[in-house]
Amino acid sequence: MSPTTATAHKHRWLILAVIGIAQLMVVLDATIVNIALPTAQADLGFSDDSRQWIITAYALAFGSLLLVGGRLGDLYGRKNVFIAGLVGFAAASALGGMAGSIGVLIAARALQGVFGALLAPAALSLLSTTFTDPAERATAFGVFGAIAGAGAAVGLLLGGILTEYLSWRWCLYVNLLFALPAAAAGVALLVAGREHADTSTRIDVPGALTATAGLFAIVFGFSSAETRSWGDPVTVVALVLGVVLLVAFVLVERRVAHPLLPLRVVRDRNRGGAYLAVAVVGAGMFGVFLFLTYFLQQSLGFSPVETGLAFLAMTVSIMVSSTAATMRLVPRFGMRPLVVGGMLLGGAAMVFFTGVSADSTYLRDVLPGLVVIGLGVGFIIAPAMSGATLGVRASDAGVASAMVNTGQQIGGSIGTALLSTLAASATSSRLEGVRPTPELVGQAAIHGYTTAFWWAAGIFFLGAVVSALVLDGSRAPAPATTGDPVFAH
Question: Are 153 and 285 in contact (CB under 8 A)?
């Protein structure tokens, strides 16, 4: 072991803290702005139609560029890409916080997505290459999985607090308090060096173009379905074009000498199953964050801060189950029973939420479901994130990590569009032919929420079946191939 590698190992737990802070920032940014939107809209004076682009711009840039960001880390150094991602994310956040118009705010959110696509794969691949001892790896991925699973709920709470007591702009400025200290610590702790890959390797341009354009079209198509309709020409063309481009991407990757995504990464059953599991969680969890947020605020009268506090039960539950899963249960039982069991718990929690009504209370009708969904997500996310990167060549760690985040983004986009459309249809059908009163409108909205919960339950139960069939049930996945020494990046 080289002196630099030994130094990196000596500081591995501090490195975990730095990576965890970066991951928390990326995950919570998917939700922290949501609660601030009404206040930002009143301040900047933009329309309801423009509002969704503040969310969509981040998702489009982030989701479409992840594979390119992951491969850049493999080729040009994960430390370099990680630091660049942190600094760029901070700059984009500062721009958004100072925005005086909707155009600047949307541009800033898109830039956040660009730098997030550099940052997220680099963070997970650094974690994968830093912790190679099975016991320590289990602990590290338990912590990382808890952050990944609970970050969105933390974003809701933090967004509520900042919006209510400071300003909506602090939902963007707060990223500087995460990113800049993490970047400084990363410069000091992470070790840079030469890659042990073929120095003639270059970015796979045809693969990068087809993957980026295809993922962009898919995410845009599902976002369009939410705001337009499934039959709208823009939606249909975007989705069809996305599928065609991704098929072209696979064909390109089979033929180029240095593919953006080596197909060996996804051919492994456990890794492929892990990517699918993360995508299912992304799709199903949308039902919790969006529709429970609406229900708590509009039906039960919770404030933004109270709503964020309400989700803390799920956050704690995720932390408990994710650490228990990776440290104790996966080594004993393997990944498959944990992931399948987590999917079943997620589905059961969604079925529980279908019982909410105008007479519901938090303690009786919401809290138990949040605890159960948290346990389920923890059993899925941490083992899946570890399994998604275990066994890959060190030179492929970045793109393997990018596939995890890509699965989350695509799953979340599908969940956003599908569940929102179903909920809206159920709500409008309940009001057909009747004179709307505040009471009937409230009942119709709850009917829309419960419809979405039923479909989210179906997504989780389908995920349980698919995971049981795809994952191979082995207890100890193959160790990572050590073609590159750890932290020679």
Answer: no
